[in-house]
Specification:
The chain is α/β, with parallel strands linked by helices and 260 residues long. It contains eleven helices and seven strands. The longest helix has 19 residues. 47% of the residues are buried. The chain binds nicotinamide-adenine-dinucleotide.
């Protein structure tokens, strides 16, 4: 971890701090002296400034958690997410509509110069092919309208995970140009294979060899800490001119695919 990132005394929110990338993000922020407010549907074993349970599939639970987060914030880290497997609408809610709803609630409390970062995936790399539809989803204002859009577009939503990750990228790009008007930068990352509890679950139903294809050309999977450091950088004052980016943190997989 780089201690040149300026987080001392900064007030930040991290969703998904129970495990994996969100846990590593919250831990690194604490090590840098930030005041960390955690959110998850499972408990967190870190010494956080505050922690609230929320289910990102449920607006009432998101509203309640957001109401407990008072004052101004310097960073929002949307790290929570569900793997492929559950019903597609649950994945769309937990990975995209819920984080979007939470972000919109917290937007008025984000300080000038603050950052919002979310985690997409290189599984979302097909977004350019669905741009018109994903922009329509972005414009489906509010959680309930978003759910209606998903229910009306089962072919696009598919198994849920790919669409949720594509939607995060397009939402990041669209909201970046809106949010920067009030001095808030908005970015996301596109990880490859990251050794976290989610990948352990995925590996129960996906051959390891298929996962390790995504770990090429680097030749190994990422750690959660390597992903967290990229998120910390994007939300730090040091990344002051980075806005609207979908940053691959995949060891070069997508660039290798692009020149095949
Ligand atoms: N692990 C990978 O290979 C990989 C690759 C690309 C992208 N990602 C993304 O990174 C993000 C973090 O995943 P991870 O790998 O750290 O997995 P993880 O399972 O360790 O972490 C996910 C976190 O989200 C929380 N969560 C899940 N559903 C929730 C809900 N409905 N409400 C509130 N909290 C909920 C979990 O409790 C957990 O703390 C996810 O968005 C995931 O899609 C992971």
């Amino acid at each position: 971890m780089s201690n040149w990132l300026q987080y001392s005394g900064k007030r930040v929110i991290v969703s998904g701090c129970h495990s994996g990338i969100g846990h590593a993000t919250a831990r690194q922020l604490l090590e840098l002296g930030a005041e960390v407010h955690g959110l998850d549907w499972k408990p967190c074993n870190l010494d956080l400034h505050s922690f609230a349970r929320l289910d990102l599939r449920d607006t009432a639970s998101i509203d309640a958690a957001a109401a407990g987060l008072t004052g101004s914030f310097d960073g929002l880290f949307n790290c929570a997410g569900m793997p492929p497997g559950p019903p597609p609408i649950d994945i769309m809610k937990a990975n995209y509509l819920g984080p979007r709803h939470l972000t919109e609630l917290l937007l008025p409390q984000m300080a000038q110069g603050s950052g919002i970062v979310s985690i997409s995936s290189n599984g979302g790399m097909g977004w350019p092919g669905h741009l018109a539809d994903l922009l329509e989803l972005d414009q489906a204002a509010g959680f309930a309208d978003g759910v209606r859009w998903c229910e009306a577009h089962p072919d696009l939503v598919g198994e849920g995970y790919r669409c949720s990750k594509e939607a995060i990228i397009v939402w990041t790009m669209a909201s970046a140009s809106r949010n920067i008007k009030t001095g808030i930068r908005t970015n996301c990352t596109m990880p490859g294979a990251v050794q976290t509890p989610m990948l352990v679950e995925i590996e129960k139903v996906t051959p390891s060899a298929a996962i390790d294809v995504v770990a090429q050309p680097f030749g190994r999977r990422s750690s959660a800490d390597e992903q967290a450091t990229a998120l910390l950088f994007l939300n730090s004052p040091q990344a002051s001119y980075i806005n609207g980016a979908a940053l691959p943190v995949d060891g070069g997989f997508m660039s290798a695919m692009a020149i095949r």
